[in-house]
Amino acid sequence: MNNDNIPGRNGVQVDPVRRLTEDQIDEIDFTSKEILKYIGFEVSCEEAVELFYKAGSKIEKKEKLHQVHLTPQIIEDALAKAPNEIILGGREPQFDVKLSASDHRVHFGTGSETNWWLEADFSNGKVNYSSRPGTTADLIAAAKLADHLDTLDIFLRPVNIQDEEITATNKDINKFYCALAGGRKHVMAGFSSENAIEDVLRMAAIVAGGAEQFTKRPLISGISCVIKSPLTMVDDAATKLIKAVRLGIPMVVSSSPQGGSTAPIEEAGMLALIHAELLAGLTLAQLAKPGAPVMYGAVPVRARLDNLHDLYGAPEFIHYAIDCVQMAEHLGIPCYASAGVGDSKVPGIRATIEKFPSHLAVTQAGPAYIHYAYGLLDRTSIFSPLQAVLDDAQIKLVKDIVRKPQIEIEDLVEAESQIGRVMGSNLRMFARFIRKARKKGRVSEPYAFEGSGDVDQSMELAQQKLDELMSTPVPDLPDGIKNKIFNQFDGLLTKLK
């Protein structure tokens, strides 16, 4: 598949760097299926148990749980129906994204539902940081910022809305409304309540221009962390996954085992477990609705050995992520990967250095989509708009590093011509040809925040860029659509109108 001829966000195409051999991939896949067949996984969701039973799974009844055993044939028959590519629509076609399991074109998005929003203050000649719980206003601001960041393709809600008026009942409708109203890029988020999924879908269809338009270009997608490691299917997550796929919402089927606590710390054990867990979740989605658009949502992490918190700066985090890209490709399902996370609590050099190895290495592996890529600090606890701007500049460099070589016959003919013209001139300089190369996208720009003189000005310049972006308006939802939404759905905060 070639994305160059479609409207929307094209991402960056790479020649993927491989970590696993084909034999290793086959052995991991085989071992994961053996785990599901002989060890099985625990399920408390009765609807999921019924779907597995009807497909021919062996079910062992326990006191409050069922132990489900999937055969390789059940898995393979189900996953054969999963699509190889998925369309994720934006508010405007120019923001559409096509995710493919096979063309190694990488897209980038935000991620995590952080509880804290971090502001930077550069007054008095030094920087001070202040954090506070996230709000609906912050989520709208984050969507607006995402609209302006050049490298960002998908907006995955990066802040938890904690206004006093937000409840378990109205959280989803407000969360998705803020994301859709704040920016024009595709919106992805988890669902807090099964009961809200239909309302969220109807609201997104209004923004899309109707149910038919939503079906062609879904403006929203969901995430279901359906497995709690090790090998336990979560009741409400399974229920929400079943409902969402039946309604036609593209879904990330996710698992996030922690190497050293809820999963083996060694690479082979981590991969055998997470792949088994994702096979179980993806199979459930396809049994619920054959052909449902799903993503292989691998979010493997590693435990710190002192306090068992996530350790995102560890090389093993990168190893796990790259391996999972290859496992998703083996299944022919688009991969949702993780990169750009560190352990620093404030923006700056440490955070950027911690993020860069995974930004580069995971991109080189060629997943369809990388989330977590912008603004996260203190693992996935804090969202910093300033760090998001720094990450955008870093991802620009990454995209330049990984771009494929352009060495065709016509390029060499042009090179010979240029060299001949320069050698026949007095100056013998190639500067006159730079503009043409820049138009082709073959010349990298200097680091966006390099500053001048002997003082590092990157933080101040990034803050200036952030202020500039946030003062630039984003087209609002039309009043007619806003009024229709607020007239039809209870629970939307009136201050958002």
Percentage of residues assigned to helices? 40-55%
| CATH homologous superfamily heading of the largest domain | Trimethylamine methyltransferase-like
Trace the largest sheet across and list its strands. Answer: 1-7-20-19-17-15-12-11-10
Overall geometry comes to globular
Total domain modules: 2
Main beta-sheet strand count, sense and barrel state: 9 strands, mixed
Q: Which fold name is given in CATH as the topology of the largest domain?
A: TIM Barrel
* Backbone structural class: alpha/beta
Overall pLDDT: 95
CATH architecture of the largest domain: Alpha-Beta Barrel
The count of β-strands is 22
Beta strand %: 15-25%
Radius of gyration: 23 Å
The level-1 CATH class of the largest domain: Alpha Beta
Number of helices: 16
Q: Low-confidence stretches at least 5 residues in length (pLDDT < 50)?
A: 1-6
Question: Could you tell me how far the N terminus lies from the C terminus, measured between alpha carbons in angstroms?
Answer: 41 Å
Would you give an account of this structure?
The chain has 497 residues and is an alpha/beta fold. It folds into 2 domains: 339 residues, TIM Barrel (Alpha-Beta Barrel), CATH 3.20.20; 31 residues, no CATH class. It is 42% helix and 16% strand. It is built from 16 helices and 22 strands. α5 links the parallel β10 and β11. The longest helix has 22 residues. The N terminus is likely disordered.
